[in-house]
Amino acid sequence: MLALVNQFLGNDASTGLAPLNPTLYALAGDHSVFHDVTTGDNKVPCTTGTTDCPTGTTSIGFSAGPDYDQATGLGSVDGFALASVLSTAPSFSLAASAGSFQVSQGASVTVTVNLTAFNNFTGQVTYTCTDAASESTCTGPGTIDSGTAASFQITTTAATARLERPFDRGTRILYATLLPGLLGIVFVTASGKRSFRRMRFLGLFVMLGFSTLWLASCGGSSSGPKDPGTPPGSYTITVKGTSGSLTRQTTFQLVVVKPL
Fold this sequence. Notes:
Blueprint: H1 2-9, H2 21-26, E1 34-35, E2 44-45, E3 59-60, E4 76-77, H3 79-87, E5 91-96, E6 100-104, E7 108-118, E8 124-131, E9 136-139, E10 143-145, E11 150-156, E12 160-163, H4 171-191, H5 196-218, E13 223-227, E14 233-243, E15 246-257
Parallel strand pairs: 6-15
Antiparallel strand pairs: 1-4, 2-3, 5-7, 7-11, 8-10, 8-14, 9-11, 12-13, 14-15
Helix pairs in contact: 1-3, 4-5
């Protein structure tokens, strides 16, 4: 029935009547829309002491009464009367200025969402934005007047690499290599049993170790762990607008590409 009412009202499939419950309960006393059932019940027999069967009773269920009750709800519905009432209720729809927006990693893009009012809808609308892209933020206007277009800024994150200082690389290897060499020098000096030629050879070996590790540590700034930023791809962004019991939403695509 509500699908037919949606069709009658010409609602966009992405918004429809939702959320409908507050509207239906507000119409609970309108007996031109709901044919109220005030007598009868939906009770069924039960055995005392069994699950959900109250002690001292032989049945479980609810009785009908005026307006809403747990036996008959709001009553039976006159579909055309419901559609007619809903067609005159203030409402609105939302739509982004385009279906998709392209942005480079690390850059921002501004998206405008327009509100279309129905049946003299006016008031304040509170906007929220759900951004499906990682390391990306969508900032909206918050609460603004319904006659003002909502502007959203989506900011992505660029891919980065952490640069290490030259002496951060191979420091442990450097110390591990120097220690035996220095101990060897001390040992040779202390013992006095090594020839001067062997001392020169050992000194040359230590110097070569110094120079090799120095070149390795200074040979360019090696990159460490990377932050991939906002990954390239297409993401669905959802914008919702709420005013009182009315909530409407629209979606668009955010296309993230690598910078040139």
